[in-house]
Design goal:
9 strands; oxidoreductase; globular; iron-sulfur; alpha+beta; single chain; TAT_signal; two-stranded antiparallel sheet
Length: about 230
């Protein structure tokens, strides 16, 4: 399919403004019922909230390695309100980034194929050359982690450093930079990988699994009473 940014916006601008922001329509049952084939690898990540200290070394490493412009971010660490009473006050730190869903709504709604799931790694990525800036993927993402890159003028997000560190045989920049080893990355199809073993050994949860997105970002809960989901 060939569709330039200019031609698409000229021919479908009205549609974008009338339907592009309707998340409920984009996330309908029929859309999420579609299945996506798994490749030889399914890269995923675990964020261990019990080890995260909120230093944001991961966000800075991501910005440097992937040349992310100021004002936008592929990765955020969000700090909770204080938990407990002085002097025993604690905080929970949560990672906000692309979930690399096996059943990704952003991929299903993209009219040009710019949003895609890499068949070799399972990583959800963006082809900037095909992106026409329609905003469908931003509206469809239930995690609200996509943004428009102010320099490339295309949709952008975390790609597990697929075009940078992974291409060089390294782990994602955020994983390499974490001083407490709160991030574990690997192949979920390999039962012996560190990430697969960790998911088996510790209680984990995933965000918004009820939507059928099948996210591949797992989290070890900081608080008590949370269960594997």
């Amino acid at each position: 399919m060939t569709c330039s940014r200019r031609n698409f916006l000229a021919g479908a601008g009205a549609v974008i403004f009338t339907t592009g922001v309707s998340g409920s329509n984009l996330l309908g049952r029929q859309t999420l019922a579609a299945t996506m084939e798994d490749g030889p690898k399914r890269y995923g990540m675990v964020h261990d909230e019990t080890l995260c200290i909120g230093c944001t070394a991961c966000t800075e490493a991501c910005r440097e390695v992937n040349k992310v412009p100021e004002g936008v971010s592929r990765l955020q660490i969000v700090r909770s309100e204080p938990q407990g009473e002085y002097p025993n006050v604690d905080y929970q730190f949560t990672r906000i980034s692309c979930q690399h869903c096996d059943n990704a709504p952003c991929v299903h709604v993209c009219p040009t194929g710019a949003a895609f799931k890499d068949p070799e790694t399972g990583i959800v990525d963006v082809d900037g050359d095909k992106c026409v800036g329609c905003g469908y993927c931003l509206a469809a993402c239930p995690y609200q982690v996509r943004f428009f890159n102010p320099e490339t003028k295309s949709a952008d997000k975390c790609d597990f450093c697929r075009k940078s560190n992974l291409k060089e045989g390294k782990e994602p920049a955020c994983v390499e930079s974490c001083p407490t080893k709160a991030l574990i990355f690997g192949d979920l199809n390999d039962p012996n990988s560190k990430v697969s073993q960790l998911i088996k050994q510790k209680p984990v949860y995933r965000s918004k699994v009820e939507l059928g997105t099948q996210p591949k970002l797992y989290k070890v809960p900081h608080g008590k009473g949370e269960i594997k989901g």
